[in-house]
Amino acid sequence: MRNHLRRAAIGALTVGTITGVTALGLPEQKAAEGRALQAADAIVTAAAVPPGNDPSRGDQWGLSRIKAPQAWARSTGAGVTVAVLDSGVDADHPDLADQLLPGYNTITRADDDGTDTYGHGTQVAGIIAAATGNEVGISGIAPDVKILPVKVLNEWGGGTASDTAAGIVYAVDHGATVINMSFTTTTRAGVLTNAIAYARSKGVVVVAAGGNSRVRGNAPQYPGAEPSVISVAATGSTDATPIYSTMSENIDVAAPGVDVPTTATGGGYRNVNGTSASAAHVSAVAALIKSVRPKLTADQVELVLANSAEDLGDPGKDTEFGWGRVDADAALTVATGTRLPTPVRPASVKPNRVRAIPVIRATNGPTTLIHGQTATVRYVVTAGNKPFAGQTAQLAIAPAGFGFTLTDVITDSNGVIEYSMPTTGRFQIKLSMPATVTRSAANSPTSSFTVKATAGLSAGENPGELVVSYNGTAGLQLRLDRLAGARWITHTTFVPTGGEHTFTGLTAGGKYRVVVPNTTAVTGLISQVAQVA
After folding, report:
1. Of 108, 152, 323, 436, whose CB count within 10 A is highest?
2. In this predicted structure, what is the pLDDT of residue 114?
3. What is the CATH number of domain 453-531?
């Protein structure tokens, strides 16, 4: 079974399915009752309102639409950490460099800067917290928050549910107040459900894109469809929803998601569309709220957002806008009041207890192969130093240029899973074991395989002939070079068909070579030199 996960229109990911706990979120109607906040929750005042000297602030229609400048008089997000679970963040961007905490890469399980080779995470981070008043670029909605980059998407924009769940746990355990997830899947993954429940049990606000699936039938989009996640729809500059924004009973609020200026990798800027951007707006507003009322629970922050939203569409909560488009200034007014709406049912559920702790050991053959050779990987899964037999797992494979797809597999009586395949291009592979009620999650290291094309030259049957044989070059444009004096010049180019090609009418005594270009799938080469008879 394969499950495909997409980024919410700044992008894409892949997850699998297992059974998990259900966490409860906002009530179906706004509560009319209120409850006094604890006196220990002191109100914090922003030190200064950021000046309006960022050159592109005038293009940021979303700032004024959600009343962020008015909100800055009371909160700029100081003291709050927002974890951006995505493709990493460009740590050298002039509008982000001073906003970032040290990052983590769940794909490699390493502390690193989460270098963003895909670009999506940098876009999300800029909307939330681009430096404001620095005379550069744009203004972040919560310019004094710190961004914790947690890389869960690879360089192709793909990832797995287990890596994402590990990112959630890492973010919670490293001080995140708000978690932003701008990606979606139509399949509920228990490993994510459990991780989200863990975050909520620790008081962390979890925000996710509502998805861009309207034209595909409005299928529920996870993790946003989890009841304990704030799911965000997109709005445009006139408060209408764009044609892609998912309509669903799971939508909680809406926020700008059309033509949104933000940061881009390499120090640049670009305008983006999609509920990825909308989720970033809501994460930033949640950070403003937590900055002034740090003792608010995640449930209370949800209720503040819902009760302060600008009601759009049908009165009350609807499938297009949820409770309405967020209003940062109104949210702070509600948050700094003496009473808040009380949830009519609990919104946090403790994660399931797990018993077995699986360990995955991976071994593989050569990782650099000739096109067509067989790649082999063997996984041995143990728990308590014994074979973990008969256990479901997910084999995640990502061909070059694509996200991971998952295939369900089961460990044999020795706890072993073996995989082999003829290689046609570069790919990555890993084994994931999502958490269940009887075991914790586990992941193997990611194995990366490189595939090389081949090409050779030999004399033909007749004078003036050379025969080129090749493998792994289908669809590529190859080049036949001739040595002219001390330098190589192009004799001709050709697209190979079959397994070999014969050139005729070549200069007797001439020296030739074939050049195969590098591609995302295969490593190219320059052949040995052949001399024409």
Report:
1. 152
2. 65
3. 2.60.40.10
